[in-house]
From TrEMBL:
<keyword id="KW-0560">Oxidoreductase</keyword>
<dbReference type="Pfam" id="PF13561">
    <property type="entry name" value="adh_short_C2"/>
</dbReference>
<dbReference type="InterPro" id="IPR036291">
    <property type="entry name" value="NAD(P)-bd_dom_sf"/>
</dbReference>
<dbReference type="InterPro" id="IPR020904">
    <property type="entry name" value="Sc_DH/Rdtase_CS"/>
</dbReference>
<dbReference type="InterPro" id="IPR057326">
    <property type="entry name" value="KR_dom"/>
</dbReference>
<dbReference type="GO" id="GO:0004316">
    <property type="term" value="F:3-oxoacyl-[acyl-carrier-protein] reductase (NADPH) activity"/>
</dbReference>
<dbReference type="InterPro" id="IPR002347">
    <property type="entry name" value="SDR_fam"/>
</dbReference>
<keyword id="KW-0521">NADP</keyword>
<comment type="similarity">
    <text>Belongs to the short-chain dehydrogenases/reductases (SDR) family.</text>
</comment>
<feature type="domain" description="Ketoreductase">
    <location>
        <begin position="3"/>
        <end position="178"/>
    </location>
</feature>
<protein>
    <recommendedName>
        <fullName>3-oxoacyl-[acyl-carrier-protein] reductase FabG</fullName>
    </recommendedName>
</protein>
<comment type="function">
    <text>Catalyzes the NADPH-dependent reduction of beta-ketoacyl-ACP substrates to beta-hydroxyacyl-ACP products, the first reductive step in the elongation cycle of fatty acid biosynthesis.</text>
</comment>
């Protein structure tokens, strides 16, 4: 069976690192992104240079119509999906709850919670043996914030990742007898440009002294965990999490 992977939010950071590693592991790759055409094309060129068959698909994965079109392109150009990485996410500016607007909260929950649920739905329609599929694997990219709560910074983001963790556990049990495994990774303090979205691009460097391992992590370290969970090496793992927060 050919391994066909969809990675949401794959034009940067952890998603891009996962795409590069997937290329080395022989996957056919769909690089999903929402806005940065140039960044997506750079990652596409990199994975193709590594020998992978790959496409880049622009789609907002918090909108079901766009998700449907995304998977239809994957069906037509790569084949039925066997692996899904729900990596796309967003975060707001650092602030206490009383300064957060309804618009911010709804936008964040739609992207960080509803989006992975909808993407998983359409992946399962292809992967699940109940629907005639050959099985597959889903990895949800959560955050150590789900455990820590992120007080006075972004409790909304932490809550969204807590919801994603609960979804991971529930879906894993729901589809375990359908040939599909569902696991999660919880990265934290990783050197990516994601922190710029919260208005604190140097956050990891500033916090390194409080991390038990004494350093921030790299996107490639998270990608290794993701690809392992997707692989047959993790064949008896479902509903589990790998924390990648340097000991926090």
């Amino acid at each position: 069976m050919d391994n066909v992977i969809v990675i949401t939010g794959a034009s940067r950071g952890i998603g891009a690192a996962t795409a590069r590693l997937a290329a080395r592991e022989g996957y056919r790759i769909c690089i999903n992104y929402v806005s940065d055409d140039q960044a997506a094309q750079r990652v596409l060129a990199e994975v193709r240079e590594l020998g992978a068959e790959a496409i880049a698909v622009k789609a907002d994965v918090s909108v079901e119509d766009e998700i449907i079109q995304l998977f239809q392109r994957v069906d037509a150009e790569l084949g039925p999906v066997t692996a899904l990485v729900n990596n796309a996410g967003t975060i707001g500016q650092k602030s206490p709850l009383e300064q957060m607007s309804e618009f911010r909260l709804l936008k964040l929950m739609k992207t960080n919670v509803v989006g992975p649920m909808l993407c998983s739905k359409h992946a399962l329609l292809r992967m699940s043996t109940r629907h005639g599929g050959q099985g597959g694997s889903i990895v949800n990219v959560s955050s150590v914030a789900a455990r820590l709560g992120s007080p006075n910074e972004y409790v909304d983001y932490a809550a969204s990742k807590g919801a994603l963790d609960t979804f991971t556990l529930g879906l894993a049990k729901e589809v375990a007898d359908q040939g599909v495994r569902v696991n999660g990774v919880r990265p934290g303090y990783i050197f990516t440009d994601f922190h710029a979205l919260s208005g604190d691009p140097h956050r990891v460097s500033k916090l390194e002294s409080s991390i038990p391992m004494g350093r921030g992590g790299q996107a490639e370290e998270v990608a290794e965990a993701i690809i392992w969970l997707l692989s047959d090496k993790a064949s008896y793992s479902t509903g589990s999490f790998i924390d990648l927060g340097g000991g926090r």
